[in-house]
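Subject: two folds for Thursday's group meeting

Dear M.,

Sorry for the delay on this. The cluster queue was jammed most of the week, so I only got both jobs back this morning. I'm pasting them in the order they finished. Each block is the input sequence followed by the predicted structure tokens. Could you check whether the formatting survives your parser before we put anything on slides? The first protein is the one we discussed after the seminar.
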Amino acid sequence: MDGSRADGADPARGFGELADRAERIADALRRALSDAGECWGQDDVGTAFAAAHRDPARSALERVAALPERLRDFGAAHRDAGQE
């Protein structure tokens, strides 16, 4: 099996297009969150909310930012698997 499709399409291309789109979305999200700044509030409720949610929010943003590379890697692995 040489990894080629009957229609000649590169199976990794779709993942590359998804990765590009995910990268644009992640960039837009990062900019929006940066522009919003700290939105937890300075009162007791806001401070407690920030303590509970700041790290998970940061972790979620990191995962979203990592998605484009993971999609590209998956597409390459998919293409390479078809060439074995």
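Second protein, same layout:
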Amino acid sequence: MNVPTYEEFEALQKQLSELRQQVRYLMGNQLTWLTIEQATKALNCSRATLHRLTKQQKLIPRYQNKKPLYEVAQVRAFIESTRVSPGAANKRILAATHATI
């Protein structure tokens, strides 16, 4: 059995605490839609790339008053499909919405 060192254990506890905060924030605020600006920031891409992803139907927006909105779950799933960890995907989305936790 592989037992972590004290430092590794402390790092894991810190990571778990951060993930709990992110989950509480996301569940408490019911963040479900991102604007173009927020989506491009979360995806770390340009508007042109976001438009291309939309045309390729890799991301499908919902329109509200002719303004495209991208579902958070869909953006998160796309980020994770690029081999980014779920925790890092959540951090990107939180940073894109200027949320502080």
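Two things I noticed about the second structure. The chain has one domain: 6-96. The chain has a mean pLDDT of 88.

Cheers,
T.
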